[in-house]
Amino acid sequence: MRAHCCKNNKMNHIVINPNFVFSTFGRFLIRMNTTIVCPQCAHEFQPTDAIRDELQKELRSQMVEWQRKKDDEYRRKESEHQKQLQQKDEEARALLAEERRKISEQLTQQIKQQVEGD
After folding, report:
1. C-alpha 17: how far from its chain's center?
2. Global pTM?
3. Which of 17, 88, 15, 26 has the alpha carbon at shortest distance from 62?
4. What is the model's pLDDT at position 58?
5. pLDDT at position 45, please?
6. R_g (Cα) of the chain, nearest Å
7. Among residues 9, 5, 57, 7, which one has the least CA distance to residue 36?
């Protein structure tokens, strides 16, 4: 595990006092009543800050990835819907043009019959 040292604010490998019982939280190892010692400056601090920072980073990256996937999915579905709407619009225009053509032919035939009949 890596954590921020409170004093020098650099990323360092941490040393955990091994004299306490482990319990697990997700993929992190937590010990009750332990301290973390910075190997560079020997500053001791509680693991809650380090674990919180690690969890926040991991959750934030998971949230960003989830949001990116949802945005991609939304854009893909929106694109599909637009294609479907365009296709239906083209079909409707084709049907309308065909109906206009038929009506025009019928009217032309009726006019021819009326003119020939007179």
Report:
1. 40
2. 0.45
3. 26
4. 87
5. 72
6. 36
7. 5
Which DSSP string do the residues of 13-43 spell out, in sequence order?
E-EE-TTS-EEEETTEEEETT--EE-TTT--
Q: What is the model's pLDDT at position 68? A: 97
DSSP category for residue 7: T
- Give the mean pLDDT per block of 10 residues along the chain (118 residues): 46 43 40 66 75 83 95 97 97 96 95 85
The residue ranges of every structural domain in the chain are 2-113
Structure tokens that stand for 61 in this block: 């990256």
What local confidence, expressed as pLDDT, does residue 118 receive? 67
Measure CA 24 to chain center. 29
60 vs 55: CA distance, rounded Å: 8
Closest to 39 measured CA to CA, from 65, 71, 72, 14: 14
